[in-house]
Amino acid sequence: MSLSEIIKEKIREYGPISFRDFMEMALYYPRFGYYTSSREKIGKRGDYYTSPNLTPVFGEIIGRQLEEMWRILGWKEFTVVEMGAGMGLLSCDVLTYLKKNEELYENLNFCIIEKSPAMREEQKKRLKEKVTWHDSIEELRGIRGCIYSNELVDAFPVHLVVMEKELMEVFVDYENGFIEILKTASCELKNYFDELGVVLPEGYRTEVNLDAIKWIKEIVASLNVGFVITIDYGYPSFELYQEYRNRGTLMCYYKHTTNETPFEHIGEQDITTHVNFSALEYWGRENGLELCGFTDQSHFLIGLGIEEYLKKLQENEPENYLKKMLPVKTLMMEMGDTFKILIQKKGVDCSELSGLKYRSRWEIK
User: Fold this and answer.
1) Fewer CB within 10 Å, N or C, the chain?
2) Which domains does the chain possess?
């Protein structure tokens, strides 16, 4: 039975399901979901590229920020948690950099939170030491260090809502094909916008990522002292809910092409939405995190020495300079403003991190 048939059977048995539940099944249903299947997802033979696919320098830059955080926390035992490590490329590049600092590496615990068996197998091919795997952040308590993620939150299942006379939620039914129907939105969905101070105009369609709120609460509960780095594409509320985004941000990726039809290629295409960084900051603050800063990827890389890296590359490897410089240019130019970095802290007294040294045009309001 295909995943499409499985979803149809659920609708026949229980009635229309929320789009959030449809998206969760499409992405995470055991063996058949997009992320739980064994098909290639990232890279040339997959559906999209991520920053670690382009160049290992991205992992080196993350490593530099982690190294600085370790010093801030007193040069002691340091736990790094990557949530949703994909193919393991970023973890590999981060560890390669951190290994150069013998004292840090000796005191390092490196943990990966990964639910997908297929992804775990890929990660274990690359990561042979220092790494332990866990199903949930709740398995780790009293963390002293940093929890980071790269392009994770955009893949959480989301509720779709439409503002009519009142807020309505999109549900998925089946009548000779998957169709959308509207039901009155829950109080939880209405409160989401109330708490963020967002008023949607009539006719506005967008997404609500309640799973991201649950996620940030779980992180706060597991982190004793340290930092949270969230890298993803998205915006603060004031930009995310602009009138020209009145159809939302949901996008599907299939064999390096994009579409807005989640009811096609079910289980074979990625479904993503832009991250609301204001929501992560707000519910992080409500549960015990403080804001360190918010910037774009370009300014983050500059603050942590990407220009110095390029200078040394030109001096030491002139024959490889162009080949290695072009992916860095993509990180800086094509992806530099699209991807944002939110850094939060708990129980830490520090004035400034290098990755936040240079202000971008983006601010959390």
Assistant:
1) N
2) 3-157+207-356 (3.40.50.12710)
